[in-house]
Write a structure and sequence with these properties.
Blueprint (H helix, E strand, L loop, with lengths): L12 E4 L7 H7 L2 E2 L3 E3 L14 E3 L4 E2 L5 E2 L5 E9 L2 E3 L8 E7 L4 E7 L3 E9 L6 E10 L3 E10 L10 E9 L2 E8 L5 E10 L2 E2 L4 E4 L3 E10 L5 E11 L6 H15 L1 H19 L2 E3 L2 H16 L26 H11 L3 H13 L1 H10 L37 H4 L3 H16 L2 H22 L1 E3 L4 E3 L17 H24 L1 H11 L3 H13 L25 H6 L26 H7 L5 H11 L10 H11 L3 H12 L10 E2 L2 E2 L5 H15 L3 E3 L2 E4 L9 E8 L2 E8 L2 E6 L7 E5 L2 E5 L4 E5 L2
Parallel strand pairs: 27-31
Antiparallel strand pairs: 1-9, 2-3, 3-4, 5-6, 7-8, 7-13, 9-10, 10-11, 11-12, 12-20, 13-19, 14-15, 15-16, 16-17, 16-20, 18-19, 21-28, 22-23, 24-25, 26-27, 28-29, 29-30, 30-33, 31-32
Bound molecules: 5-hydroxymethyl-3,4-dihydroxypiperidine (IFM).
């Protein structure tokens, strides 16, 4: 824990004034910058694999060790190191007078400063939002007296890779002013090109010598320093893989050339302009607590930089912060990352869902392999949608034996979660074209899968889902998990609605889809039967809904007690022998998660179940606290809502979650909790929900907050929402095309385009 890490000057930045090597994995992730195409860890400019330096590039999936298919960490073109009068000087140096590492969230720019008696160094780096393949750096040395500076600047291909070497060969060449490194991935033979140029005072620097070994290509530059005269070094790096373009080499050289022409300042200006446009959509302003403002922006920032928007690619559970969780999508993508986009910039939400459409074949292949019909989406989904989750995800750290986890074959809720999101996307955007053209096929195929995965209990005359995992991953091989069964029923019902819509509006297209998926009339009537008869548990006499069959019979202990039973603190708590397996302790929100997705449950039920499950939840997943925060807001547990808000927002900053579990590295940025910050603020504190074209607000702000302000999208209309203690102000953008229906405390009003509505906040 390093809680004092949260320093902020402007409310858009975060900095540290001392380096802690113990926290290098975490801080490298926290201070990183990126643009959805690549993520560059916020390490020092001369960091190497020992310091967890990395530049993770999207769409470079490859398997290094025969087990983990993951994104590659490509050669580091921004590497630069400095010696003054033969003494190494960097952020790692121990005799510094001044040290600062700062991430400016408004422009996604990493700044480093370090200073000793001889010089002051100021560094800026960014991954351009204007030119996605471009990294840029400005490195300014201000000498306090005369001296000799020796710089090593180039490309370091000896990179940190958590599951083995991904590259089979490195070739270095000099192309005009550029250094070019070409490497090829081991499994798929994907070409990767990294082109680099170093400029001294605006001119490509001539190296005293060029040194390259098997994996590294460095120029050595010796420069005389004069007292008080700053030396400005700029670096540009362009990165392309063979998956980006036919001719990645030319593309990299071309981008590099253009960047040199453009110059650092202009590249940074264009990049910053794009960032201001993004913040215009996504920012949430909080008045009354500066720390919470920065925490919020930190999390929003990470949700943004890890989301690929340039192509149909997954949002990784650790984004582009490292290779953990394989750079691949989980259900996190739809349920945690996407809602912010859905309500602010729905084109990105659509892009995410189109990725699921593009990967339907992978989901179908998985279903077939396991003996089912339809689309069973991968638990861990990379480029193609094929299941990337290995059979043995964790190991028993005591015996060293592998654990056969069943995330890949029993965690079936990912499919209905995707269908649920397709329907939500349609409800919020009204995008019929998407629903009919793409959504319908996905929803039908998911419903087919659910039908073939269900079990009809003849005795009880109901459909059940057995042998599965719900969101709570500590309990594998359970039956009738409420979350899963509820989601399945909901999704099949909505699929039938879509079928009805197509029947009325595009019968030919419906026919085509039904034929393509081999969905007969009989199947459609089975869907109808399922909607009536899927078993969804009801509350017991105390009002508590049992998470799955037999849950109440398990030992009723608390997570703190289980901690005391661990033999090794990195033991996996779940299946088959973990400390939580035979107890009621859950890893993460499960029923509470369901309550976040559906507004069908009354306050009393929410309260009773919150009271029951909250003390039994370990929050072993970073996904969990945010869901508790939202429901706590809804039931008026204001302090609890705030407590979980802070817990969720600081998962990465305070490094609270396990970086290694059951022997597997799962560190890096927790993108799901980053996405969830938006939900805590909007669905939780602002009490926003949307049903049948009406926007509802029921705010409950944390005690010391005076105001929150954000922008919402609904069906191509934008509304500015300002909530303070006394009033709720809604401003409809003048360019809106529709009047909006608004409900505040049971009063429904109409908000015309350009109109402002002020109501009392009770
Ligand atoms: O998807 C989650 C899961 O719910 C809990 N374990 C980690 C996964 C990736 O974030």
């Amino acid at each position: 824990m390093f809680e004092n890490n949260l320093n902020s000057e402007a409310l858009f930045d975060l900095y540290e004034t001392g380096y802690d090597p113990e926290q290098a994995v975490t801080t490298g992730s926290n201070y990183m910058f990126g643009n959805g195409y690549m993520g560059y860890r916020g390490t020092h400019p001369d960091a190497t694999k020992e310091h967890f330096a990395a530049c993770i590039v999207s769409d470079t999936y490859d398997t290094a060790d025969g087990k983990w298919n993951e994104l590659c960490n490509v050669p580091n073109g921004l590497f630069i190191s400095l010696s003054i009068n033969n003494n190494q000087l960097s952020g790692f140096s121990e005799d510094l007078n001044h040290y600062k590492r700062q991430i400016k969230l408004d422009t996604a720019t990493l700044c480093n400063e370090f200073e000793n008696d001889q010089v002051k160094v100021q560094v800026e780096r960014f991954a351009s939002l204007d030119q996605l393949h471009l990294l840029a750096m400005k490195y300014v040395i201000t000498p306090k007296n005369q001296g000799d500076a020796n710089l090593v600047s180039g490309i370091d291909g000896d990179v940190w890779s958590i599951n083995g070497e991904h590259f089979q060969e490195f070739r270095v060449s000099k192309e005009a002013d550029a250094l070019l490194m070409h490497t090829v991935t081991k499994e798929l033979g994907t070409d990767i090109y990294v082109a680099e140029c170093t400029l001294i005072d605006g001119v490509p620097g001539t190296a005293d010598s060029l040194e390259s070994n098997e994996k590294q290509a460095f120029r050595k530059l010796s420069i005389k320093l004069s007292e008080g005269e700053p030396l400005i070094i700029e670096k540009f790096v362009a990165i392309y893989s063979g998956n980006d373009t036919e001719d990645p080499k030319s593309a990299a050289l071309q981008d590099l050339h253009e960047a040199i022409q453009q110059g650092y300042q202009s590249a940074h200006d264009r990049h910053s302009l794009k960032w201001s446009e993004l913040w215009n959509s996504y920012d949430i302003q909080i008045q009354g607590n500066d720390r919470d403002q920065t925490l919020t922006r930190f999390n929003l920032y990470h949700n943004i930089i890890h989301t690929p928007t340039h192509a149909l690619l997954p949002v990784g559970a650790r984004g582009l912060s490292c290779q953990a969780y394989q750079g691949a999508a989980f259900w996190d993508q739809e349920i945690f990352n996407l809602p912010m986009y859905l309500y602010t910039n729905p084109a990105i939400a659509k892009n995410i869902l189109m990725y699921r459409y593009q990967t339907l074949e992978g989901a179908r292949g998985k279903a077939r392999k396991l003996g089912y019909r339809g689309a069973f989406y991968a638990w861990i989904s990379g480029k193609t949608g094929a299941e990337l989750c290995p059979d043995f995800f964790f190991k028993d750290v005591i015996s060293g034996r592998k654990i056969r986890n069943h995330f890949n074959c029993w965690q079936i809720h990912v499919s209905p979660d995707i269908a649920y999101t397709i329907w939500r996307y349609y409800e919020v955007t009204g995008d019929k074209q998407f629903l009919q053209q793409y959504g319908a096929e996905m929803m039908l195929d998911i419903s087919l899968f659910l039908m073939s995965r269900s079990f009809y209990n003849v005795d009880k005359q109901r459909y059940e889902f057995i042998r599965l995992l719900g969101p709570d991953e500590y309990h594998e091989n359970v039956d009738n998990n409420v979350f899963t069964n509820y989601q399945a029923r909901y999704v099949i019902e909505k699929t039938l609605d879509v079928v009805g819509q197509l029947k009325a509006e595009r019968p030919d297209h419906l026919q085509q889809v039904l034929e393509k998926l081999d969905v007969s009339e009989e199947v459609l009537s089975t869907f109808e039967d399922m909607v009536r008869k899927i078993y969804v548990k009801v509350p017991n006499n105390d009002g508590v809904i049992e998470q799955f069959d037999g849950y109440f019979d398990l030992e009723d202990v608390r997570p703190e007690i289980l901690k005391g039973r661990l033999i090794d603190k990195s033991e996996y708590w779940g299946w088959p022998n973990g400390v939580a397996v035979h107890t009621q302790v859950l890893k993460q929100a499960d029923l509470i998660q369901l309550f976040v997705l559906h507004d069908d449950f009354d306050q009393e039920l929410l309260k009773t179940n919150f009271d029951y499950y909250e003390p039994r939840t370990e929050h072993g997943s970073s996904l969990s606290p945010a869901m508790y925060s939202i429901i706590a807001s809804k039931i008026g547990y204001r302090d609890m809502a705030y407590k979980y808000f802070v817990k969720s927002c600081t998962v990465d900053l305070y490094n609270t979650n396990k970086a290694v579990s059951g022997g597997t590295f799962i560190g890096g940025i927790h993108t799901a909790s980053c996405g969830a910050v938006w939900q805590m603020l909007v669905f939780g504190f602002a009490g926003f929900s949307e049903h049948h074209d009406t926007l509802y607000f029921k705010p409950s702000l944390p005690k010391d907050w005076h105001q929150i302000r954000f922008k919402l999208h609904h069906r191509l209309n934008f509304v500015h929402v300002t909530i303070d203690r006394e009033q709720i102000v809604l401003e409809s953008a003048p360019e809106n095309k529709d009047a909006l229906s608004i409900d505040i405390a049971g009063n429904t009003r109409t908000l015309e385009p350009g109109q402002r509505l002020t109501t009392v906040n009770h």
